[in-house]
From TrEMBL:
<comment type="subunit">
    <text>Homotetramer.</text>
</comment>
<keyword id="KW-0521">NADP</keyword>
<dbReference type="GO" id="GO:0005524">
    <property type="term" value="F:ATP binding"/>
</dbReference>
<protein>
    <recommendedName>
        <fullName>ADP-dependent (S)-NAD(P)H-hydrate dehydratase</fullName>
        <ecNumber>4.2.1.136</ecNumber>
    </recommendedName>
</protein>
<keyword id="KW-0547">Nucleotide-binding</keyword>
<dbReference type="InterPro" id="IPR000631">
    <property type="entry name" value="CARKD"/>
</dbReference>
<dbReference type="InterPro" id="IPR029056">
    <property type="entry name" value="Ribokinase-like"/>
</dbReference>
<comment type="similarity">
    <text>Belongs to the NnrD/CARKD family.</text>
</comment>
<dbReference type="Pfam" id="PF01256">
    <property type="entry name" value="Carb_kinase"/>
</dbReference>
<feature type="binding site">
    <location>
        <position position="204"/>
    </location>
    <ligand>
        <name>AMP</name>
    </ligand>
</feature>
<feature type="binding site">
    <location>
        <begin position="175"/>
        <end position="179"/>
    </location>
    <ligand>
        <name>AMP</name>
    </ligand>
</feature>
<dbReference type="GO" id="GO:0052856">
    <property type="term" value="F:NAD(P)HX epimerase activity"/>
</dbReference>
<comment type="function">
    <text>Catalyzes the dehydration of the S-form of NAD(P)HX at the expense of ADP, which is converted to AMP. Together with NAD(P)HX epimerase, which catalyzes the epimerization of the S- and R-forms, the enzyme allows the repair of both epimers of NAD(P)HX, a damaged form of NAD(P)H that is a result of enzymatic or heat-dependent hydration.</text>
</comment>
<keyword id="KW-0067">ATP-binding</keyword>
<dbReference type="GO" id="GO:0052855">
    <property type="term" value="F:ADP-dependent NAD(P)H-hydrate dehydratase activity"/>
</dbReference>
<keyword id="KW-0520">NAD</keyword>
<feature type="binding site">
    <location>
        <position position="91"/>
    </location>
    <ligand>
        <name>(6S)-NADPHX</name>
    </ligand>
</feature>
Length: 267
């Protein structure tokens, strides 16, 4: 399924507002990567709710992104009211700050992508997954969600993705070589693309932002997850032609060009 072309009079308010909730102390980069990916995949607006310590870095790296310094869940209420899609978890940590923000997100009815520490806290029983969630575990996070080992997850990736989708009632994107996407209705897709040069920090953070941008631009959730995984893996393959050492942020421009080939902005 493709993103719809844009009418000439389209304005940013019609293209969704992705709010990334991410980045505890020492992990500010994860939220920036997710926000950058959402921006580069065409979301109308992108906001980043994070620790106030990360604000100047965020502003200098991504001036298009609205920054929301949050010290407590109360300070998340205004950004939540403005958002249409949430990306929750990259570098979120598991501190009391992290837990307060995750609780607030879990109570929101907005469509949301949960990654990284949102999944670790979900696995710990701290909260329930919201309605309309997309979970994006790597095999380690999947093992925590299923209370088994990552070797067991890897031994039958299709079943692991299906079990997470059923147990948490959420579309599940099981990352790693040949990412598997499972829906709650029994659909299962495997994207046999990607490259080991993508085995590096921050690649998953980028994927969460891509899914967020596609959802914000009104692609149905399962299609958004599948298309995002495909774009991300193909972009990784392209950059890997130059060898190892890809920085996750390098992917954003390649994904942007692939998205335009797949779903041209003007049809
Ligand atoms: N710039 C920043 O701020 C960044 C911040 N980041 C943030 O760091 C936090 C910790 O996240 P993390 O993923 O590093 O640690 P963790 O969840 O313990 O997983 C590690 C274990 O999982 C497994 N495993 C993973 N992939 C696998 C695979 N493909 N195939 C197979 N197994 C795989 C593997 O388990 P093993 O095989 O050893 O049993 C591995 O030991 C989190 O908040 C994140 O957002 C990052 O996003 C980076 C950029
Ligand atoms: N060997 C590989 N082959 C294909 N894709 C890979 C490989 N290693 C990692 N990736 C992709 O890179 C991303 C890594 O995500 P993740 O483990 O969550 O990293 P991080 O938490 O550092 O952002 C996933 O989308 C995964 O599918």
């Amino acid at each position: 399924m493709r993103l719809a072309p844009r009418a000439m009079a389209t304005h940013k308010g019609q293209l969704g507002h992705v709010l990334v909730i991410a980045g505890d102390l020492n992990m500010g980069g994860a939220g920036l990567l997710s926000a950058q990916a959402a921006l580069r995949c065409g979301a109308g607006m992108v906001s980043l709710a994070t620790r106030e310590q990360h604000l100047s870095a965020a502003l200098s790296r991504l001036p298009e992104v609205m920054t929301c310094p949050v010290r407590s869940s109360a300070e998340l209420l205004v950004p939540l009211a403005r958002a249409s899609v949430l990306v929750v978890g990259p570098g979120l940590g598991q501190s009391s700050w992290s837990k307060a923000l995750l609780s607030a997100a879990a109570q929101s009815a907005l469509p949301q992508i949960w990654d990284a520490d949102a999944l670790n806290l979900l696995a710990s029983g701290f909260c329930h997954a919201p309605q309309q969630a997309i979970l994006t575990p790597h095999p380690g996070e999947a093992a925590r969600l299923l209370n088994c080992s990552s070797a067991e997850v890897q031994a039958d990736r299709n079943s692991a993705a299906r079990m997470i989708a059923e147990r948490y009632n959420a579309i599940t994107v099981l990352k790693g070589q040949h990412t598997v996407i499972a829906s709650t209705r029994g659909e299962l897709s495997c994207v046999e693309r990607g490259h080991p040069a993508m085995a590096g920090a921050g690649f998953g953070d980028v994927l969460s932002g891509v899914i967020g941008a596609l959802l914000a631009q009104h692609l149905p959730a399962y299609s958004a997850a599948c298309l995002a995984v495909w774009l991300h893996a193909c972009a990784g393959e392209q950059l890997a032609l130059q060898g190892r050492g890809i920085a996750a942020s390098d992917l954003c421009q390649a994904i942007r060009l692939l998205l335009e080939e797949h779903s041209p902005c003007l049809g």
